[in-house]
Amino acid sequence: MKNNLSIRDIAKLSGVSVSTVSRVLNNNGRYSEATKEKVLKIAKENGYRPNSLARNLRKQASTFIGIIVPDISNEFFAKIVKDCEQLLFSIGYLAIVCNTERNPELEKRYIEKLSNHMVAGFIIISTNATTIRNLNLTLPIVYIDRTPNLGENSISVSSDNYLGGKIATKYLIRSNADPYMFITKTIKQSTTEDRISGFKDVLIKENIEGNRIFSLNTTSDCVFSDLREIRKYLDTLIEKRKKIGIFAINDKVAAAILKVAISKKIKIPEELSIVGFDDISISKTAAMPITTISQNTSSISSQAVNALFECLNKNIQISRKIVIPIELIKRATA
């Protein structure tokens, strides 16, 4: 065997993962005594010598934080990433931002590489939190805009999406509108499910029956590329000849509904009221300013960075969920 053995070679010979070999050789993290003995024996037998440059980089890992984001072009995510990056820098940390394009496998690979080599912890807006839990990471993690079943090293920071769903629905009902909800095709996320639960619970309390959730066969990012489905649903609802209220899963969907409604000369908000969610720029720049549930991105970011900083400094972590208040912003559509 070559003398310049890599940890990948040792992993292959010992039958364990690269991350496990890295933890054993650096004497940190969790592993069994049997695994430790096997890895060290193989390293010794093959004359393994750690690369001094790589070792020095690892020693400086405490100054790096991995930020994992599903879509950096998404305005809501971009605001949070920018705020987190600036806050981290102000307290002596550098952010390494990885854009996963909503690909769970790519997300997993980014996290594995960063955790093996250079970061002290993670701030993650996850595409699939289950995949991350299966990695059994020992580094502290703060999830943003997701509320997964938390492991030992995890904290979540998110808006009160359930309450937001309730407030939006109650507001539509108080305006004498018949309430419906428009959602998009997406991987199940706690944020979406909480908004839907808030909507449904208000309907139950108000004794409003029937299937009132319309699922669009598109994603929020592509909702403007084909408006025919929204047009079809609006035709169905307007035929009821009563005031309709639509709670859209986010502001992009709300803006798409507004665009179709205006093209069909539906009177807003007299015949159709619309409430969005997020309070991103499109809610202010659309043909009519959109009533929406506002998420406080600054508070989300600061709470996330503060929680991570506390974990890194105290070297302990108590799993917890941090819920950020939301606010109804009343504009022209409802």
TrEMBL record:
It comes from the Bacteria. PROSITE patterns: HTH_CROC1 (PS50943), HTH_LACI_1 (PS00356), HTH_LACI_2 (PS50932). Keywords: DNA-binding, Repressor, Transcription, Transcription regulation. Residues 2-53 form the HTH cro/C1-type domain. The keyword Repressor applies. Residues 5-59 form the HTH lacI-type domain. InterPro entries: Cro/C1-type_HTH, HTH_LacI, LacI/GalR-like_sensor, Lambda_DNA-bd_dom_sf, Peripla_BP_I. This is LacI family transcriptional regulator. It comes from Lactobacillus mulieris.
